[in-house]
Specification:
about 210 residues, alpha+beta, Glutaredoxin, Glutathione S-transferase Yfyf (Class Pi), Chain A, domain 2, 2 domains, 4-stranded mixed beta sheet, 8 helices
Length: about 210
């Protein structure tokens, strides 16, 4: 049994989707950031950084969304969310997971919270982040166009779920991810999976269904 501490629509979304795709039992615990519950003594006891998500695995809490999703894929290889270690696609899988975690996802934090580190330059930081995000979408769209239709080619994987979460984050940006044709097609394809309406219902998400 897993326990996922989440805030609706945040970085826990890729972990939640992975749990649904795998089909294992899990418990959800909502952490209301608007009420400061992520800074409560109870939550800080399991996640001293006060961030989401936290996944309790075998009684121990762990953090970092990409790492958690990859851990689930490894613990449940029967779900087929990640290529086997000996597969030619394994290198591409690792490359794209780390690209999303290290390059694209951090740009969203700069877009949404540009004043966090340098308040005087918030406008410039947000503008630069927007440019960076669009460059990432262009690269991902090119990957999907050849060979496609998924990030690793013919086979659906965890990488696609990660891209889906980040696409959702872009929904209200001046140029959302679905402005790129291959990304729009991927969104349509992934939203047709059973995990998507289930995760929206479980987290109470109503936008971008």
């Amino acid at each position: 049994m897993y326990t996922l501490y989440y805030s609706p629509g945040s970085a826990n979304l890729v972990v939640h989707l992975a749990l649904l795709e795998i089909g294992v039992p899990y418990e959800l615990k909502c952490v209301d950031i608007s009420k400061g519950e992520n800074r409560s003594a109870a939550y800080l006891a399991i996640n001293p950084q006060g961030v989401l998500p936290t996944l309790v695995v075998d009684g121990r809490p762990h953090t970092e969304a990409a790492a958690l999703a990859m851990l689930l894929a490894e613990r449940h290889p029967e779900a087929g969310l990640a290529p086997a270690a000996t597969s030619p696609a394994r290198a591409d899988y690792l490359q794209w997971m780390l690209y999303l975690a290290n390059t694209l996802q951090p740009l969203f934090r700069q877009w949404f919270f540009p004043a966090d580190h340098l308040p005087a330059a918030a406008d410039q930081i947000k503008q630069a982040a927007g440019i960076g995000i669009e460059k990432c979408w262009a690269r991902i769209d090119a990957q999907l166009a050849t060979p496609g239709p998924y990030m690793l080619g013919a086979e659906f994987s965890l990488v696609d779920l990660y891209v889906l979460m980040l696409m959702r984050w872009s929904r209200n940006m001046p140029r959302p991810a679905t402005s790129w044709p291959a990304l729009a097609a991927l969104a349509t394809r992934l939203k047709a999976r059973a995990s998507w309406p289930r995760v929206n219902a479980a987290e109470g998400l109503t936008e971008w269904q």
